[in-house]
Amino acid sequence: MVNRPLSGIRVLDFSTLLPGPLAGLILAEAGAEVIKVERPEGEEIRRFVPRWGDDSIHFALLNRGKRSVTVDLKDPGAAARLEPLIRDCDVLIEQFRPGVMSRLGLDYERVRAIRPDIVYCSITGYGQSGPKSQVAGHDLNYIAETGLLALSHGSAAHQVIPPALVADIGGGTMPTVLNILLALIGRQRTGEGAYIDIAMSDAMFTYAWWAYGMGHAFGDWPGNGDSLLSGGSPRYQIYPTRDGRFVAVAALEQKFWDELCDLIGLERRLRDDSVDPAATIAAMRAIFGNRSSEDWAAVFEGRDCATNVVRTLAEAAKDPHFLERGLFDHVLENQAGQRIPALVVPVAPQFRGPAATPGRAPTLGADNDLLDGSVRQ
């Protein structure tokens, strides 16, 4: 018997693109009924490319198992039309700039007048207050504004764009899910709802924990690629191999470092990497560049050295370890019946629905009957 802990929780989701929709997906995977409120033409990510069936693959991945209603929020009667849903929902998520929901007649105070114990969550780049609250931005802007990007952005000749949307997911999605769950627990105890102000930029300081510790405690503010975890150490570094691939070294602990040095035959005089880190890095680059990634993978196999070959996404998706863990067992299906693995979400398997049951993203306005006050699933 699957224990889906959020069964019976209804979420009204006004958000678009990534942070809010991914938060809604996580809640839905844990059993919540998530209802997307979309403009009559649908949210913009539906029309992104590449298409997979009727909608974009991005929309399909983020909205598996949700429902959809369409409302023109600029219509004077929109707020009244949404009242039946608001009255029967537990959580509301919105991702507009500060002040927009108020202009639409759907701000926290007015929603709370309809549903007093509502958990109302607003997601923005810089929060509901402060000088930057109305500033537009995306992930790259938020990590740049908070100093996180300055820790490792490459050189003037070769800038590095981070591969993960840290602000969107780590500053938007995850804090949203965490705080909604905390608010729901609080509501169980007190009967009171909550207003939650999530600023994607805020959590970027959390991600720079080590750098801010050095700066605040010792006045030693790390720069671009010059610290232990950002490229300044031979022990935490990416090295190219002879065949154009890369090796990821994270041998921070001395036992891992000693093992790695023995395996690659690093000169004794360079093993104390505190003496001349640049010289040690240069020597290791030369060593790793002399052999192929396949050779190095064989060298590291079964050895405790916290070092491995950088795999492609395609290789990782076929890795026996991740397959055995069941990460790709859940199924996403489009309107044509095509199936692919659903997006991996950080919800424990025992809290999700059966993996073998395919889930679909909702067709636009498929659940407009809910606007008449239809009962929950």
UniProtKB/TrEMBL annotation:
Start and end residues of each stretch annotated as Disordered: 353-377
Please report a single Pfam family linked to this protein.
CoA_transf_3
Coiled-coil regions listed in the entry: none
Signal sequence span per UniProt? none
Q: Which UniProt keywords apply?
A: Transferase
Give the molecular function GO annotations: transferase activity
The protein's superkingdom reads Bacteria
The protein's name in its UniProt record:
Crotonobetainyl-CoA:carnitine CoA-transferase CaiB-like acyl-CoA transferase
Give the source lineage, highest ranks first: Bacteria, Pseudomonadati, Pseudomonadota, Alphaproteobacteria, Hyphomicrobiales
